[in-house]
Amino acid sequence: MPIQTFAKLIKKEEIIKDVFKFSVEANEIVKTAKPGNFIEIRVNDQTEPFLRRPISIYNINKEAEILEFIFQIKGNGTNLLSKKQIGDKIDILGPLGNGTFKFEKYNNIAIIGGGIGIFPLYELAKEAKAQGKKVNTYLGFRNKDLVMLEKEFKEISDKLVITTDDGSYAEKGFAIDYLKKDMEKENTATEETNAKETQAEDEQKFKYSTCICACGPLPMLKAVQKYAIENNINCQISLEEKMGCGLGVCLGCAVKKASSPKDNPEYFHVCKGRPVFNAKDVEI
Amino acid sequence: MNTKINFAGIEMKNPVTVASGTFGYGREYSNFFDLGKLGAVITKGTSLKPKSGNKPPRVCETASGMLNSIGLQNPGVEYFAQNDLPFLRKFDTKIIVNACGSTIDEYVELCKILNTLDIDGVELNLSCPNVKAGCMAFGSSYEGVKTVTKEVKKVLDKPLIVKLTPNVSDIASIAKGAEDGGADAVSLINTLLAMKIDIYKRKPVLANNTGGLSGPAIKPVAVRMVYQVSQAVKIPIMGLGGIMTGEDAIELMLAGAKVVSIGAGNFADPYTSIKVIEGIEEYMKKCNVENIEDIVGKVEMN
Asked: Of A15, A93, A151, B62, whose CB count within 10 A is highest?
């Protein structure tokens, strides 16, 4: 159940240029938040900027009752947010979204993210690791200046692959290519056991015993979605869309249902149902 | 101090309602406060059959406001009657259903069904700018408004409020169309037709190209139009457009609105409507207003 709270900013860090990590005291949100949930922040009590900013949750620290989120300065709203000082109270609505990452039935989780889309994947990786899953993480960035959270993801991943489009840091190329390679390797090794494991899966048998969880720029998500559907892999993608309320009221953040016809499309909504969708359910 | 008000036969505990399309059918906001605190809930625009709405992007932010082009996505009146109405009825508030259609027949058929439901009133949507047929097409002329209102009134015994579009050259004559058609009240303003361009893509931000502007940016337009309509018709007015505070609500009431409605402000802060109710009470105390009704239309023009 979402609540509105004024959460105290206790730590603030610019992790790379124009990208800020905020830690806030938000015990009521932390209590119920799950991997894949997001929050909406009102940056001031004026009429400008008018709407809240949807921001994904990076880390849920239940023991310390601290919520962490990371955002990039994109415009006026996030710029104002970045100016908040330690001790300031931040107007937060959350946790929002009902469709969180579902990976319980899988022993292997492949996490793929790109750029500023990697933030919600940290809590997911952490939670999966805590449940004893094998976590392989693939993070893609444009160049070395934009690489972030390598140490953090390394600590909670069995394997971490960092890629840069231009090869200026770590592996050159796209994260999905490294994911594919590992999936193929793993497939030959686990084909026999996986038929049993995945039988009960959502009325559908998936070929692999690994489930993919993805968040990142649209071209990456499209490539991951295509690969997963073609190879019958359970794949969950976290989407974003322009949002009004964040609560499922305004019906602004629509995403087309894959099953609905072009001339009479039907829609899901990113805020209420999700933001995490099964890749086969949506047309992006 | 008395905040009770009788609006077109609907007894409200206070003059604050929530506007169609900004409150769904109440469920989401009921997590934040008791809906019984509101004078009335006006539902999401509801049609005879379910509507899936427009292509995304459907919303974007603008200076002190936002654009929307949702396209009246709704589950249809049958679903509303079975699922949402029983839920809303649990709260001690009035229920007004915003009714939309693309033909006169559709409006009439819908209102025949609404007439049988346990609701307190109907708001006729003649003002949505985001659908191809109906709505604003009827709402843009005196004759159009009068005709639909008259036909609907024949099948509806409940109070009928006609919601007007500001996208017209003479709002007073449009309101007169509603009054002459037999409406019990008018509500105004719906959103202003607008457009935002992504200058890097050189394309409109909304998939539908245009959308309706709402939020504090449109409040002065609402104040002017409510005043003009108040001078042209005798039926009561529900005023809306950019209300965020009690002061905003009072301003519209002084201009001539008997009750007000909170729209896009709900998105910025789920408690906006509650804060408006509190703000109105503060104003009443501060300015020694015993009955809220006493301030309606009390602006003194220069």
From this structure: A93
Within chain B, which residues score under 70 in pLDDT?
none
Instruction: Write the CB contacts of A184 (distance below 8 Å, at least 6 apart in sequence).
Output: none
The distance of B209 to chain A (nearest Cα, Å) reads 14
pLDDT value of residue A118: 97
Peptide bond into B57 cis (omega under 30): yes
Instruction: Tell me the residue length of chain A.
Output: 284
pLDDT one-digit tens code per residue, B59-116: 999 999 999 999 999 999 999 999 999 999 999 999 999 999 999 999 999 999 999 9
Residue B224 tokens read as: 């002017």
Q: How far apart are CA B25 and CA B73, in angstroms?
A: 13
Contact criterion met (CB < 8 Å) for A4 and B23: no
Residues whose CB is less than 8 angstroms from the CB of residue B93 and which lie 6 or more positions away in sequence, other chains included: B13, B35, B36, B37, B38, B39, B40, B41
B5-53+70-194+214-295: what fold? TIM Barrel (3.20.20)
Burial of residue B182 (CB within 10 Å: 0-12, 13-18, 19+) is middle
Q: Which residue of A has its CA nearest to B218?
A: A47
Task: Using a cut of 0.80, tell me whether the model's pTM lies above it.
Answer: yes
CATH node for A108-239+275-283: 3.40.50.80
CATH architecture type of domain A3-96: Beta Barrel (2.40)
